[in-house]
Amino acid sequence: MTDPRVTKLAQVLVRYSLNLKPGEHFVMRTSPLAEELNLAVFEEAIKAGAFVTLMQSVPGARQIFYKYASPDQLEHINDFEKLTTETYAAYLAIDAASNTRELSGIDPKLFAQVSKANAPLEKTFMERAASGKLRWSLTVYPTQAFAQEAEMSLPDYQDFVYGAGMLNEPDPILHWKKVSADQKEIVAWLTGHDKVVLKGSSVDLRMSVKGRKFISADGKCNFPDGEIFTGPVEDSAEGWIRFSYPAIEYGQEVADIELTFEKGKAIKEKASKNQELLTGQLNSDAGARYLGELGIGTNYGIQKFTKHMLFDEKLGGTIHLALGASYPETGGKNASGIHWDMLCDMKDAEITVDGELFYKDGKIVIH
Q1: Same domain, 234 and 155
Q2: Residue 170: inside a domain, yes or no?
Q3: What integer is the mean pLDDT of 60-85?
Q4: How far is the CA of 124 from the CAs of 139, 314, 336, in angstroms?
């Protein structure tokens, strides 16, 4: 019997996040491990009148690919991914892993090679999303592997995932519409400003957001959600930051990351674990050392770091910076094959915007 929260999640994704319409081409990229949610989303999408395509990954296939692929295979752009990115109206990714460390033994240079080859497709995806021609969303289906990473039992992790999405509420969509309204007020306050300064025990960083647009993340592109983000002016970041939490990329953990910025570029990087992966990704293309995003987590219902960035970047009391590609809808211009979010605790820090206190000790303080 299907968990009623899974049915609600499928309804929210199709009716609210993606807002599927009759006749639209919709691709769902998922795994057999998420069968319960796959079928529920498929049913809702069919009822909505969409033309549905399922892309099922096979657990273990990525490890085989990176282990045996030739240079030509690593750099090959999948024809079907190109077709869906360039022409489909809606895209949903359901993350459901059986082994989060599947790629832990792979040479980081191979990841950089694939990222560089996929940069043009990533640019097309972001441009179509920014223009409204492509609506997309990312969600998680709770698996044993994710529960273990979060140091929870599977039932507890299921409660965490569905609770974060407010799927215990009679009408979760009403909740997310309220989040949208509340965050629009914060976005309105930020609009038209320029200098952002972050100061605390783990950060001393300045950047400009002049002419950039802040976006309210309210359950559309990510579910669950809860953040406000923009694309900093590309050559403006100056200073230093230490990311309090490990960054996860290709299932590998990069710990104690410290970055130093000059004229927008990360000129120095350090990590206590997997430094080679960090440097390899930052050297993958010309845009990888520049910031594509400044995000502020606003979901105080997510109270635990779980090693899954979909949840972790929304943590109330944190900010995240993404190295690499900007979201064009913010006005950001940085292009890269990577978009790598890194998370910093701000519970003893503050953010000023054009000299006015905006955020202190993990909370937005404007009225």
Answers
A1: no
A2: no
A3: 95
A4: 21, 26, 11
pLDDT of residue 367: 65
Residue type present at position 64? I
Q: What is the CATH number of the domain that holds 137?
A: 3.40.1830.10
Dihedral pair phi/psi, residue 324, rounded to 5°: 110, -140
Each residue's pLDDT tens digit, 113-131: 999 999 999 999 999 999 9
Asked if residue 171 belongs to a domain, the reply is no
Helix (H, G, I), strand (E, B) or coil at 78: coil
Question: What's this model's pTM, rounded to 2 decimal places?
Answer: 0.90
State whether 98 and 218 are in the same domain. Answer: no
Q: What is the full DSSP assignment across 192-259? A: T--EEEEEETTEEEEEE-TT---EEE-SSSEES--EEEE---TT--EEEEE-SS-EEETTEEEBS-EE
Q: Domain count of the chain?
A: 2
Residues 240 and 326 in one domain: yes
Give the pair of three-digit tokens for residue 43.
């049913």
